[in-house]
Write a structure and sequence with these properties.
It is a single chain. The protein is built from 22 helices and 13 strands. It is α/β, with parallel strands linked by helices. The longest helix is centred in the middle third of the chain and has 25 residues. The radius of gyration is 29 Å and the shape is globular. About 1% of the residues have low confidence. It binds arginine (ARG).
């Protein structure tokens, strides 16, 4: 579409100079973004609104449109078959020959049609998922995990080198608590058997007991926990071994979920990794006089930037979450020399990121503006907010399991003889959850309704996967596709499908610019709708005209390739058959 818009822009620009003189030329650069898509394609495929020009040209918009129309009709812009006037708009009809060429180009480039090279030679670091060890991996982590991974896939598709980092929450006072709880109530066998669930219940139990003690004015457990964490920080071997074990047990569990999602990370360097990298940064903060002592703690005052202070060291000298993030950012810059470093977390952490980004800036690091926080809204199920600390949470693995069970039942009923039944049920169940989640703008709060997510007739993952499988089976039956001719009498439905497919590069570009995977999920639905209309109205295999059949099959291949790629870009698998 971009090339076409450029052609139109140049034609309008030179026509304007010819009509009204060089001084009143409409600059070609401003035109492509001003072009609109008419609400009804019967009016045309692209529209140029003349309203804004009426002041400079001192002329009513319909008159401007009429003058341009007369001039442009003499020599049509390349790729345009007709120019029409509609009130103050100048409407352009795209030529069938252009759409035929486009169809060939799409089929030729296939899965790479929406790719870019603006990321070549640049590196993006993406920090996402990052659950806290020994805490449940719950539905609140769905956002960071799938938005983060989609952004990684999208950046890769634009040529960037991508480093996906799971910044595990593997350090902090919770380990002191866990060690105390383990000694008091835990057993090696139970943990080996029940994995992270056992850790979570130990953690929940000690939190409850600490709370009960607090209410009774006692703090034995809290003190013991702090002491165990201090021992851990000082390198006590026994505690270190326990810490590592807790971490391994948790990771093994998370990896099951990552496998279902098809996600791998390039690094699992969590918070603990930065322990020895913080002193250097703390020293810089001191040397630059950026820190001050406030009630014993060391902080960076951010009042001038309308933010509460950023906490660097507690009064006992121990480090905090922002301290580790600062050290991690410096490490990543040195190690990966990133062009962007992206952090995906819930919007609840927006202030945290704004604060330490500012601190990095004040420290004089000139790459502070390459740090991006990508926030997202909350998830609830059936209107209920999800608790985090009490253990009363919906685990991601349970959510997926429910979706997979339901899909298995649907497949059992509709297509019991399918091969790879289990694999298909998993791809569709997990895909349904992800698609539903990524369908709305990321900042919107989501109320998760399982039956809506699984509705094969809604704007859902199963609908998109089903459409993909349909294109696949058509192409399988068709075998080799012959060379398609130029089609000179495309139907409105065929035109619509070609135009929809041709938008793929624009969609991937804006999804990256806005860091918004929903641009891709919505686009996938546009493709499905356009394809299914085409499928109903235009016979493919039974089409008698050989050239037309080749054209329709070429289009079908374009749908399969682009839809398949689009789904992959948002972490969704697409079985060949459903
Ligand atoms: N572990 C944190 C949490 O679960 C998220 C970490 C995000 N990344 C970061 N570099 N702070 O809330």
């Amino acid at each position: 579409m971009d090339k076409l818009k450029q052609n139109i822009a140049e034609a309008i620009s030179s026509a304007s100079a010819e009509i009204w003189g060089e001084a009143l030329r409409i600059p070609a650069d401003n035109i492509p973004d001003a072009l609109e898509y008419p609400p009804d394609t019967a009016m045309g495929d692209l529209a140029f609104p003349c309203f804004k020009l009426s002041r400079t040209l001192r002329m009513a918009p319909p008159k401007i449109a009429a003058s341009l129309h007369a001039k442009l009709s003499e020599t049509l812009p390349t790729g345009i078959s007709e120019v029409r006037i509609a009130g103050g708009y100048l409407n352009f009809v795209i030529a069938d020959s252009y759409l035929s060429d486009k169809t060939r180009e799409i089929a030729e480039k296939g899965r790479d049609f929406g790719a870019h090279d603006f990321g070549k030679g640049k590196t993006v670091v993406l920090d996402y998922s990052s659950p806290n060890v020994a805490k449940p991996f719950h539905i609140g982590h769905l956002g960071t995990t799938v938005i983060g991974h989609s952004l990684k896939m999208l950046h890769k598709y634009a040529g960037y080198d991508c480093i996906g980092i799971n910044h595990l929450g593997d350090w902090g006072t919770q380990f002191g608590k866990l060690i105390v709880a383990y000694h008091k109530w835990g057993s090696k066998e139970a943990i080996e058997q029940n994995g992270v669930d056992e850790l979570v219940s130990l953690y929940v139990r000690i939190n409850n007991e600490i709370k009960a003690e607090e209410e009774a004015g006692i703090k034995t457990l809290a003190d013991e926990s702090r002491a165990e964490f201090t021992k851990l920080e000082q390198g006590d071997e026994e505690n270190l071994a326990l810490w590592k074990w807790f971490k391994d047990i948790s990771l093994a569990e998370y990896e099951k979920t990552y496998k279902q999602l098809g996600i791998t990370f390039d690094s699992y360097n969590g918070e603990a990794f930065y322990t020895d990298k913080m002193p250097e940064q703390v020293q810089i903060l001191k040397d630059k006089n950026l820190m001050k002592i406030d009630a014993g703690a060391s902080i960076v005052d951010l009042e001038a930037y309308n933010m509460p202070p950023c906490l660097i060291l507690k009064s006992d000298g121990s480090t905090l979450y922002p301290t580790r993030d600062i050290a991690a950012a410096v490490y990543r810059k040195r190690n990966y020399d990133f062009d962007k470093c992206i952090y995906v977390t819930s919007a609840g952490q927006s202030l945290h990121f704004a604060q330490w980004f500012k601190v990095v800036d004040l420290m004089g690091y000139d790459w502070a503006d390459k740090l991006y926080h990508v926030p997202y809204g909350t998830v609830s199920i059936g209107g209920e907010k999800l608790a985090t600390r009490t253990g009363n949470v919906i685990l991601l693995r349970d959510l997926f399991a429910t979706a997979i069970d339901k899909c298995r039942a649907i497949i059992e009923e509709k297509n019991p003889n399918i091969e790879n039944k289990e694999e298909t049920a998993e791809a569709v169940g997990v895909g349904a959850v992800i698609f539903y989640y990524l369908y709305g703008n990321r900042m919107r709060d989501i109320n998760f309704i399982m039956n809506d997510a699984l509705d094969f007739n809604g704007n859902t993952g199963p609908y998109a996967q089903y459409t993909y499988a349909r294109t696949n089976s058509i192409l399988e039956k068709a075998g080799t596709i012959g060379e398609m001719p130029d089609v000179s009498d495309m139907t409105a439905t065929e035109r619509e499908l070609v135009k929809t497919l041709s938008l793929f590069p624009n969609k991937t570009e804006s999804a990256i610019a806005e860091m918004e995977p929903s641009i891709i999920t919505r686009y996938a639905i546009d493709i499905c709708n356009a394809f299914n209309r085409f499928y109903q109205e235009c016979p493919i295999m039974t089409c008698e005209d050989e050239g037309r059949r080749a054209f329709r099959l070429t289009l079908t291949k374009g749908v399969r390739d682009i839809l398949g790629r689009a789904l992959e870009l948002v972490c969704i698998k697409h079985p060949d058959k459903i």
